[in-house]
Amino acid sequence: MKQKIIMLLLFFAVKLFTATVSVPHFFSHNMVLQRDAKIPVWGFAEPNENVTVTFKNQLKTAVTNASGNWKVILNEEKFGGPFEMKISGSNEIVLKNILIGDVWLCSGQSNMEWNLARVDGFQDELIQQNFPLIRHLKVERAINTLPQKNIAPTEWKIANASTIGDFSGVAYFFAKKMYQETKIPIGLINSSWGGTNVETWIPRNGFENSVDFRDMISKMPKISLDSLTEFSTASKIAGLQKKHQINTLDFNETFYLKNDFDDTKLPEIYQPKRWEDQGFEGLDGIVWLRKKVILTQEDLGGNATLFLSQIDDEDITYFNGIQIGTNNSYDTERVYSIPQNLLKVGENIIVVKITDNGSGGGIWGEPEKLKLVTSKSSISLTGNWKITVEKIFNKINENEFPSLAYNAMIAPLIPVQLKGILWYQGESNAERAAEYNKSFPLLINSWREKFGKHLPFYYVQLATFETPGNSNEGSAWAELREAQTNTLKLQNTGMVVTTDIGNPKDIHPGNKKSVGERLANLALNNGQVSPVFKDFKIQKNKILVGFKPSVNLKTSDNSAEVKGFEIAGNDRIFYPATAKIFKNRVVVISDKVKNPVAVRFGWKGDASENNLVTENNLPVSPFRTDNFPLSTEKVRYRVNLD
To answer: What predicted TM-score, i.e. pTM, was given to this entire model?
Structure first.
């Protein structure tokens, strides 16, 4: 009897494993399919199995190939719904409440991923009585070294009070305006990941077909994720030993925290600056930093305060061996109080244990916010710190190698039919801003090869944010904005300018409504677009600047002077300039530049002072008229497997 039961269980297990027809997780109840386009439906089953798809009055059949894959192509449908789809083989799948409408792929990094519950105006959305026909599919974070056939388990959600908090804020406000204007259902595929660079979203064959990136991608092995992880970790450990004489096996926390620990042989690293930019590429793990400070008797008059700017990702901070603070938020400024009894005359030791889970690591942010303030003085901690590594994580982060996010989060969606693509990314590529002139168009062209060669591609230019640099020092943030503007050369693209709605102190500004609505303006082609630089003309000591499209210009604060302009002569030194609107052009002049050759506008991270706008209050994009060398020209993306 026992043997019969086992045989029956084995029989049903085999039937379950071999007989089931399935579809990718993109297909679920409540999904939206693209109107006025062929509708591909595909999935998996046993080899040579007959599969039938029934939708509205259509019936299509297919036979799975030797690998168990099948696909049918449904005829075009007008918008509407709800409808039902049946997929039949050895079993039957019934998908309900399907809409036909416009489907938008929404991707990028955190400002696209940022959910509605965390943005301005969320409560107003909750009290609406009628939600439009908006559906949202969140593609879960995942990476892979090879293109995958399916995304991680997920499902389409209907917009209502219990779900919209998890929608992308930008995408939601885009969809809401689109629906209000067109009355067409909107489907949002939210495949985004905070902190990701553009290279992780570009397919391998895109790099292979690019003269600029062909050599880089040739160094990327075609192996499984597990194999690459083991290979990469071993390479990092060996690299630490070879390049920095750091052996993780030598680390001892008890000794390292002691003030008399001899750290003279430890390598140094500059702070505040991410260690990936200083020869510690791909370093994710537990890292310790040490800094000695000398205090006088006068410094001991009361408690002190330690300012560590921001730390990526987590820190536990010690002063003279005693823990004084901890935080696990990468974008939060660390401010820790040091009790008076911990301070001593002479040498004091600051130790910071940092756990970096991915992407950039180390102390970052403004140098002036890295300091020790005592009752007497303020001591800058900017400069070299001793560094050692306790542990390297046996993992690969999403930015470490090319194509990782694409393979797991975009490739499985092919061949979904789309209306267009929305993109909000760039912050993580600022240090390679000049190269973004090549990598960003490559992403657009590569995705169009997969989803449709003429698909609209609308994107958001970097918002205002307080970053180092200016016209005379170089500004990576401004140079990245320029690369985004230059990408408008590609047909059927559009750019939203957000210098007026950012937050200089917050890389995740709360106003996502204006961003989404400006993206919708581009999709609606209603003429509401931010002007960009067109041309300039030198007239003695003045420069006249023109814009496209040519629209009526004004200042956002109704002042006569246009703010944010600078002017330079042959010495290439830029000075603040007086600028005024004249017949929808801007006249720029400075007493310090008698023979001007170049003008720049908003050329820094925090461009919130810019007040040049259109009649519809859309800001003019930052720009430069010169072709002087950029500060990021020599920085290149590369595969690190040495």
So the answer is: 0.89
